[in-house]
Structure formats: structure tokens, C-alpha cells
Amino acid sequence: xxxxxxxxxxxxxxxxxxxxxxxxxxxxxxxxxxxxxxxxxxxxxxxxxxxxxxxxxxxxxxxxxxxxxxxxxxxxxxxxxxxxxxxxxxxxxxxxxxxxxxxxxxxxxxxxxxxxxxxxxxxxxxxxxxxxxxxxxxxxxxxxxxxxxxxxxxxxxxxxxxxxxxxxxxxxxxxxxxxxxxxxxxxxxxxxxxxxxxxxxxxxxxxxxxxxxxxxxxxxxxxxxxxxxxxxxxxxxxxxxxxxxxxxxxxxx
Length: 253
Known about the structure:
Shape: globular
Strand order of the largest sheet: 2-1-3-4-7
Strand content: 5-15%
Structural class: alpha/beta
Low-confidence stretches: none
Largest sheet: 5 strands, parallel
Radius of gyration: 20 Å
Helix content: 25-40%
Order of helices and strands: EHHEHEHEEEHEHHHEE
């Protein structure tokens, strides 16, 4: 543990989370909160909500000295794949998926009074772009299945009184979304990731949480003025850069 202590934001989910630092939304959130919060990545490619439940107590121990201020959860894309007749693979039936997400929400919400939760739904997919998407003669992943599981995730969010972000709908508002939002039909390009980061930042800005987790409302670490700050053109005053988010603060609102 290094100091000073900062609020901790945890990104917990499958490959949409694990790969979120590859020109992705996780990197953007980390950039915006660079001097305000520690962003902790707990992403596990190919995981479903069943596997998440198996490690929930390990990743989020209830007796931890410090508990996260925010947990962003993403599961559903792998759960929504078709069932395998041999009983293997990532598919999780819809009702079980919803119950798993309820359990995740309950566990995380109860970590502390300050811990906030955001659920991300599965994004849409481009079926034609996914390599090896035929299993036993059927499409393994379909955009219609993603829609159903996205709606289920939003239903659980409302039921559990937590913030939910409908990525399935948000990404499809982009012009030519099928062509520009995916690396491989599933995982997001920079264009797709910008939608995710904007939706998250909008929720953090608008949420009526105390304390606020909106980046402008949070103090910057070591944000006090210093004679070692950058000197202004007049040669007599300095400029405090502690709240400057490159390249332009207004870009992140």
C-alpha cells in the first residue's frame, strides 16, 4: 500500500473490462481520475456471472480495512451465448443470470455505506464480424440474445436501486456502429469505448451521491499551490496544473 490514501474505483467483469486499457474506456477513466482516485482492474476474459460469484468474497472481502468507493460491474455477454448440449461453455440461463447479478449487487452494496455500484449491460455485437461464431451449426452469439440479457441487467439495476448503463442501446446510436465500434465483433474499438466512458462519466456527474464521485468535485492529490508550479508568461505568477486533465478539461464533461 502506498500513500496518500485515495478513493478506490474497481472495474470488475469479463473481457470488456480486462481489455479496457487497450485504447479503451478503462484507460480513459484512469486518465480522468489520475490524481483523484485509484482505478483497480479486476477483469477476467471469458468469464460469466457464475465464475464471478465463485470469487466474490476473495475479490471483495467484507473485512477489508479499506473498501472501494465505486464498483463498476460488467457480466452478461458470455452468459448470453447459446447453451452447449454437453453442459460446458459460458452460457448461463437468463433467470440464473439475473439472480447472480442480484447477489453481486447485494454483496458489493454491503461492503460499506460509501460503496456505490454501476452495472454495465452487454453491448451489442456484430455477428458477421465474429470469427468462429458457428458452434454445432448455430450462431454461438447473437445480438438478439445480447438485447435480452441487457434488458435483464437493467431490470436488476432498477430492482436493486443501483445505477445501470444500457450499453446495448447507447452504442447503437453511433452512425455505422457495426462497422466502427468493434475490433472483432465483440470487443470495443476506441470509438465504442468512448461511448462507455462517456456514459460512465455522465452517471458520475449526475448521481446524487455523498460524497460526490464526479471528478470535478473531488480534490486533486497534492493540489496546493507551489512556487515550483509552471510560470505564467508574465514571469511573476505560476499556474497550478493539478486539476488540468489533458488535453482539455471540457472534453470530459
